[in-house]
Specification:
With 401 residues, the chain is of the alpha+beta class. Helices cover 32% and strands 26% of the residues. The chain has eleven helices and 19 strands. The structure holds zinc ion (ZN). The site of zinc ion has 7 residues, from loops.
């Protein structure tokens, strides 16, 4: 079989087929293509006439230097892909040194994506914006890198780096819907591989996470049990059992990792006062460090709907409110309750601007101060005890006033 280098004269070479066809190589028809070569066939009987080896990078650059117009065009692609590779290797996460040092507690990782609008975008030069894969640790984005469609390469590369840096402190990873969309593409071919990579790295999958609207928002993967850590669990109820009262902090961190529309990040969960007390301070700290504006509401589930709520501004300001008679209609607060509220530090309602009891103090703008105020309000004003059922609602607020 005749074979040619790609940048040789095969297009002008004369061929004669046993069937009688005669013509130049450029008149032959494209046949099967393989990784290293392509076949050219007789246009009359479709038998194979000759093969051509695809050019190597060096052959293309040499042909371009010699003035071949096709090679010159192709060498532009090579330059583009080189600059892309260089950009990529500079930005991807490959070393534990690129990650922040661990604090004391557990680390919950998350993968999500973010659109960025700061050119240039070597990966997508034609686009107005670029999508980046974001690594989130305990609610804070710590690393961004370019993302390709339909590849689990980032997972295979990033998980070992995380394990090396954080060891057993890393307990779980949440892979949000946007990250799944990028990594898995249509999911048909990638889903098995995705699950295999996580399983191989020691993770077990929790029940897929849904927003309160029932929409799938991502998967949480928990690292397989170590002797001194909770077992991987199969659903949210077990999760609560395994993680104890700290599960509430888990749920909120998971919402913090969701970068999609606000309704996807909305959390509504029933719990008791002891669970709220256990996690509220840390939850408020985490909401404060997020760049969005959040609202957190804690309310009673039995009797009149008594509630306290906190607005967490983008700048980290904590503005607390406690329900007043204005919203309680027939069930007003008693005289004794109205005396207890200011004693705890609440400011009187000042309608029409402020219908509720309110509290904000720059010197006490911390998760622990506000958490303490809220929990004391439930205990001493609303007369709740540890096991009274409450509802916690957390959501990002789009209202920028
Ligand atoms: Zn022929």
């Amino acid at each position: 079989m005749l074979s040619f280098a790609y940048y040789s004269d095969w297009k002008n070479t004369a061929f004669t087929c046993p069937c009688g066809w005669q013509g130049s190589g450029s008149g032959a028809e494209d046949g099967e293509e393989f990784k290293d070569l392509g076949e050219w066939d007789c246009p009359k009987c479709h038998e194979r006439l000759f093969i051509v080896f695809w050019p190597t990078r060096e052959e293309t650059l040499a042909a371009a230097a010699a003035g071949d117009s096709e090679a010159i065009a192709e060498s532009e692609n090579i330059k583009y892909s080189d600059s892309r590779d260089e950009y990529w290797s500079k930005n991807k996460l490959t070393s534990p040194a690129q990650l922040p040092d661990p604090g004391d507690g557990v680390i919950r990782a998350g993968l999500t994506t973010e659109e960025t609008a700061s050119p240039p975008y070597p990966l997508n030069p034609g686009l107005e914006k670029d999508t980046q894969l974001c690594l989130v640790l305990n609610g804070t984005v710590v690393h961004r890198e370019p993302v390709w469609y339909e590849t689990i390469e980032p997972l295979e590369r990033i998980l070992p780096v995380l394990h090396e840096k954080y060891g057993k402190c890393l307990t779980s990873i949440f892979i949000g819907e946007p990250a799944c969309y990028w990594l898995l593409g249509d999911r048909l071919s990638m889903l098995g591989k995705y699950e295999e990579v996580l399983t191989k790295n020691g993770y077990a999958k929790l029940q897929p996470i849904r927003s309160t609207g029932g929409k799938w928002v991502g998967d949480r993967w928990v690292r397989a049990s170590e002797p001194d850590s909770p077992n991987p669990v199969a659903d949210l109820e077990n999760w609560r059992e395994s993680y104890g009262p700290g599960f509430l902090g888990f749920l909120v961190d998971e919402r913090l990792a969701i970068r999609g529309p606000g309704d996807e990040a909305r959390l509504t969960v029933e719990c008791d006062l002891a669970e709220v007390e256990f996690s509220l301070s840390e939850i408020l700290d985490h909401l404060q460090s997020d760049a969005r504006r959040w609202i957190l509401i804690v309310r009673t589930l039995s009797g009149p709907r008594l509630y306290v709520q906190v607005l967490v501004t983008q700048e980290g300001g904590l503005w607390a409110e406690c329900v007043s008679d204005f919203y309680l209609e027939e069930f007003g607060l008693s005289e004794e309750q109205c005396e207890a509220l200011p004693a705890l530090g609440w400011e009187w309602p000042s309608p029409p601007a402020k219908q509720n009891w309110h509290f904000h103090d720059e010197l006490m703008n911390t998760g622990s101060a506000i958490s303490g105020l809220l929990v004391r309000t439930f205990r001493t004003v609303f007369h709740c005890d540890d096991i009274d059922p409450l509802e916690v609602v957390v959501f990002p607020s789009s209202n920028n006033k």
